[in-house]
Every structure is written in C-alpha cells, then in structure tokens.
Amino acid sequence: SKQIKVSLIGNPNTGKTSVFNLLTGLNQQVGNYPGITVEKKEGVCKLPRGVKAHILDLPGTYSLNASSLDENVVIEILLNKKDKDFPDVAVVVSDVENLKRNLLLFTQIKDLEIPTILVINMADRMIRRGISLNIQLLEKELNTKIALVSARKNEGIDELKKLIESYATLPTKPCVDALTFAPEYFDRLKKAFPKQSIYKLWLVITQDVNFRKIDKSQVTITPDFEIKSESELKRFQQKETIKRYQFINDVLKKGVFVDEKAATGLRERLDRVLTHKIWGYVIFFAILLLIF
Ligand code: GDP
Ligand code: MG
C-alpha cells in the first residue's frame, strides 16, 4: 500500500533524530546514501487513522546554500521530484530557543512549494526560559501548520502524526519573496524558464557553482543563457539571506515573547539554592575538620 513519504529536515541538534525515534520506534534502519558515506536513517510510522508513513531522517543542514556534502544530499533530494526519497511532506524541526537561525532553512524549504510542517521542538525549555508563543499567528505568518513538541517528554508527537496524515491539505505556498533584490536578473530568468519555480532555478544555478555536478533533469538551463559570475552569485546569496532574516525578525517580533524576568528570576532562585548547598558543604567539612 502507498506510504506517505516524510523527510525530517533541520539544523543540526534541533532534535530530528529524537523525533525520528519517537515516530518510528524500533521500525528503523540505518544505511548510507549511494556513493557517499553520509548516514541514512529511515523508518516506518503508523499514523492514527491507519495509514503508514515512511520517515527519512535527513542530515542536519543550516541552509540550502549548500557548502558541505551533507547539505548537498538534502538539496539533491528536494530538487529532484523523481528521486525515490522526494517527500510528500517536509517536516522542518526547529528548536524553540533558536528559532531565528532555524527559520532561515524553513523559509527556503517553503519556497520549494512542498507541503511543509514546522515542528517547534524542546517545548519543555519554554517555562525555564520565559518563552511564550502565539502559535496561531506564527502559523498564519509562516503559512504552515505547527506542531509544538517536546521529544524529551514525548509530548506533541500525536499532533505531529495527525498533521502528517493530513498532508494533502497543508499550505504549499512560500512565506516570503526573498528574490526581490535583482528584479531585472530574475525577470529574465522567469521569462527564459516560465514553467519553473524561480527559487528552484536559483538553487540549481547556485548549486552548480558550488558542486558543478547536480542532476539537471528537473531544470534545464540552456547553454546560451548567461549565468552570473561566481562572486556575483555569492553576493546574491547574501542578499537573499538578509531578506529572509528581515522577514523572520518581523514574524518573531509578533509571535514570540520572552519574559526576561521569568527567565532571570528562575536563574536567581537556582543560584540561591546552589549557594545554600555550597554553604552546606563548607559547614559540613568544617565540622569534619573540627572532629578530626
Ligand atoms: P539532531 O542533531 O537534530 O538529530 O538532534 P538530536 O535528536 O540528536 O538531539 C540533539 C540534542 O537535543 C540531544 O542532546 C537531545 O537529547 C536533545 N533534545 C532533543 N529533543 C529535546 C527536547 O524536546 N527537549 C530537550 N530539552 N532536549 C532535547
Ligand atoms: Mg540526528
């Protein structure tokens, strides 16, 4: 029977593998991607209404401006609809304490127009850090569905499974237009390849510069089309990143609240407890010394 193909994507250390383990339990295996030594973890998850999902735990990546082999694995899968690992739904795993950095990749994945779910993991840390979220607003601004998860406490995983099961109804449109800094260049690209998503085209071009080997079956670039110089493309990539961070900052300002007092108050209380303990030890050893 048909399985829903799910890719877990995210920065390193956001809890992808922890979420993967909760979704798949013991139904998992570890291998390698063909031809390279990057580890490949895949498994099966049974969803609430009985459908099965094939889950792929992709290597950690900071952005789709690939510079490493790990990142290139992710991009090649996401660019190639014919790849057997091309996902029906992308689950981007983020860490509630590092949303700004984590959302850079999220906005790029959204540009690929794949159904996407945002997992905000490490929810167990929110109280201690004084963080609260307006999930509804974040969902609207980021044009996505959000699962608030604590992999450590096994919370929010059922909600995530439900979202995966309803992947066909998830929003697929981008959340920010990041390629607005060179209108003339991108207009020309659009005209040359009217059927392609402009962001995919852009990825292939930059990817090609970084690796000179990508499978272009998805996007054909005619040899006579002028491709910018490497340094110019790098400058464009920087402008793209700046655009994305401007958008992310605006969204986070509206949807994330950090109560510094709650955070520091707790730290002070912790400090006090610790100081008490230290005094306890000092007195204890002083008494020991006195006895002997
Ligand atoms: P990956 O690099 O994205 O695969 O992340 P891992 O699953 O290996 O987790 C990275 C670290 O974060 C590990 O030390 C986990 O124990 C920890 N971690 C994962 N999920 C949670 C969570 O929900 N809460 C907390 N507090 N820590 C977590
Ligand atoms: Mg991992």
From TrEMBL:
Keywords: Cell membrane, GTP-binding, Ion transport, Iron, Iron transport, Membrane, Nucleotide-binding, Transmembrane, Transmembrane helix, Transport. Signal peptide: none annotated. The keyword Methyltransferase does not apply. It is found in: Cell inner membrane; Cell membrane. The chain crosses the membrane at residues 278-292. The keyword Ion transport applies. Residues 3-170 form the FeoB-type G domain. Probable transporter of a GTP-driven Fe(2+) uptake system. Belongs to the TRAFAC class TrmE-Era-EngA-EngB-Septin-like GTPase superfamily. FeoB GTPase (TC 9.A.8) family. This is Ferrous iron transport protein B. It comes from Aquimarina addita.
